[in-house]
Amino acid sequence: MNKVFLIFIGSLLSLLFMSACGEGTNQNVSADNPVKVVTTTAQIGDIAENIGGENVEVESLMGPGVDPHLYQASQQDIKKLADADIVFYNGHNLEGNLQEIFEEINDKTPAYAVAENVPENQLISEEGSSSTDPHLWFDPKRWTYAVEGVRDGLIELDEENESLYTDHASEYIYMLDELDTFAKEKISSIPEESRVLVTAHDAFGYFGDAYDFKVEGLQGLSTDAEYSVRDVNNLVDLLEDQNIKAVFIESSVSERAINAVIEGAAKREHEVEIGGELYSDAMGEEDTEEGTYEGMFRYNINKIVSSLK
């Protein structure tokens, strides 16, 4: 994000905060006077909606098909952030282009990086780099820490409803435990030698760690990373060596990268098909099962299992 744009953002936020001055934090929070919550991703928005219930009004900036790595905040987004009572974002540089904005608003509006609650010894770093993998929602056990982060943020803002937020968070964590059990049972039907997941970018590292999968992405942790002919050839080598017949596209990433791999394999007379589309950095459409965290996770598991077993 360039310096001129940052100065513009800072000036705009100052004006917006001045216009909101005197409104203060929500008092007597209820369904009629809900906490205004803004989240970056829908995955975090799903947590906030379930924990807050009728006491919150949640808006997620990044909808279906949106790539958070490349997301640029609009003037309308900045106004939403300025008008919010509380902001929840992932952290670990998932929303790299928005990081300066979160730092700018934090003096006036509490902003929590919920994925940064995960203990350091449970984090995965990109090979040969100090960059932390931000895609923690693909392991329900690790995602529990994000739930606790949302719960604690809401309680700090609205102590009177602490018991409600605590109860709802416990219910959500129970759902995550059930998802973990579901995943293990379904994945057990895939032969160990077939547990290789090839995708456009390296978004499934925590999934692989949790469920004993070898995971390979053509691009790195972020989709703004460029890939080379060498990267494509290395991935084609893997497909040939392990006789892998299916690769996966992602709902928030262009198919161009994966198509390059399929074409490279075809030149070596190794036939590879697209095993299906997975939800990686974004969930499905609103008002669908895949538009919820639970539905998105179950869909991915079913798609992976049906293509690889």
Description:
Helices cover 44% and strands 14% of the residues. A four-stranded parallel β-sheet has the order 2-1-3-4, with helices on both faces. A two-stranded parallel ribbon has the order 5-6. Strands 7-8 form a two-stranded parallel sheet. The model is unreliable at 1-9 and 18-24 (pLDDT under 50). The chain starts with a helix and ends with a helix. It is built from ten helices and eight strands. Helix 5 packs antiparallel against helix 6 (162-187). It is globular.
Proportion in β-strands: 5-15%
Question: CATH topology of the largest domain, what is it called?
Answer: Rossmann fold
**CATH homologous superfamily identity of the largest domain:** Nitrogenase molybdenum iron protein domain
The quaternary structure here is: single chain
Strand numbers in spatial order across the main sheet: 2-1-3-4
Average pLDDT works out at 86
Give the proportion of residues in helices. 40-55%
CATH architecture of the largest domain: 3-Layer(aba) Sandwich
Q: Which CATH class of the largest domain? A: Alpha Beta
Quickly give the structural class: alpha/beta
Order of helices and strands: HEHEHEHEHHEHEHEHEH
> What is the total domain count?
2
Rounded to the nearest angstrom, the radius of gyration is: 20 Å
* Number of strand segments: 8
N/C terminus separation: 44 Å
Largest sheet: 4 strands, parallel
Shape: globular
How would you briefly describe this protein structure?
The chain is of the alpha/beta class and 309 residues long.
Structural key phrases:
single chain; 8 strands; four-stranded parallel β-sheet; globular; alpha/beta; two-stranded parallel ribbon; Rossmann fold
